[in-house]
Amino acid sequence: MKVLISLFLFDGHPDWIESNYVQFLKPAVARGNVVGVLIGNEDPDMLAAIIQYLQKAKQDFPQTPVSTAQTTGFWLTDPRASQVLPLVDFVAVNIYPEWNWASPNAANQPVNSGQSVTPEQGFASFQQTYNQVANKYAGKAVVVTETGWPTTYGCVAGADACGASVPPPTQFPDGIANARKYLNLVKGWAQDPARLVNVYFHNMFDDLHAVNTSSLFNYHFGLIDHSGRAKGVLF
Fold this sequence. Notes:
Layout lengths: L2 E5 L6 H17 L3 E8 L5 H14 L5 E6 H6 L3 H4 L5 E5 L16 E2 L2 E2 L2 H18 L4 E7 L25 H18 L8 E3 L34
Parallel strand pairs: 1-2, 2-3, 3-4, 4-7, 7-8
Antiparallel strand pairs: 5-6
Helix pairs in contact: 5-6
């Protein structure tokens, strides 16, 4: 299996970063199935560490492309992007459809400007954002390191910020259908022989830990739920 591997950047713990780089990332690249190395994910405030390990990875793995996975806002409008651009071999961007991350509709699905977002609208938003990034960095390959669709909204018992006694969020059929439609639209677009874009879906499993709790959608992007059952989105 060919994989894209990422180094997690621990804020305030440079020793943990170095340990993970030496103990896990370097041996993984040496096995020969790593197609690219990512330094950090949506963490531009750790720019010094990103630059340090981009430089280190380029020195240690001269034959392996490297980048840093950041949001569309970073790549499109953050002046700090110019500092990492000379160090990356491709632009690694996380693209999600435009919606209100804190206001689900009655079926626990995303809304935008008070209206439920359809998979088709989400896909159009994805394409528009991708084209903006690709046009800005025409000299670089663009890899979509994250995109996805949340199947529901709400806290989950056992999650870091939710406690043990919260009731399970309702999983409406609309959420499964919308995620399936959106991911298949993106998949078909990416596999078009005239385009062939590398896209990674977020996520195989629903997350419980280290979740950005500014939106309770973030607990529900998995193809497999918190109990280990496939949701029926792609399989």
